[in-house]
Amino acid sequence: MGRPQDEEMGQKETDAKSDEQISVTCPECGAKVKLAVKDAEEKMTARCPKGHEIALVKAL
Ligand SMILES: [Zn+2]
């Protein structure tokens, strides 16, 4: 008894996932590149500051 109302469920969980970032290392020059997970999943590539393209494996 005394079961609380599920008011808490009404609170929107923050979309932490949406601006979650991953960092990948460029295989060409070893530069660390940070990008949003969202972008990574969308494009499946990242670009390092020197312009190398980094292929991302879909294993995030
Ligand atoms: Zn590079």
The helix/strand series, from N terminus to C terminus, equals: HEEHEE
Instruction: Count the domains.
Output: 1
Helix content: 10-25%
The value of Rg in angstroms is 19 Å
β-sheet strand percentage: 25-35%
The rounded distance between the terminal residues' Cα atoms is: 43 Å
Report the biggest beta sheet as strand number plus sense, adding barrel if it closes: 2 strands, antiparallel
**How many strands?**
4
Main sheet strand line-up: 1-2
**Unreliable residue stretches:** none
| Cofactors and ligands | zinc ion
| Shape assignment | elongated
Summed up, what is this model?
Helix content is 18%, strand content 27%. With 60 residues, the protein is of the alpha+beta class.
Structural account:
This protein is 18% helix and 27% strand. Strand 1 and strand 2 (32-36) form a beta hairpin. It has a two-stranded antiparallel ribbon with strand order 1-2. The chain has a two-stranded antiparallel ribbon with strand order 3-4. It has 60 residues and is an alpha+beta fold.
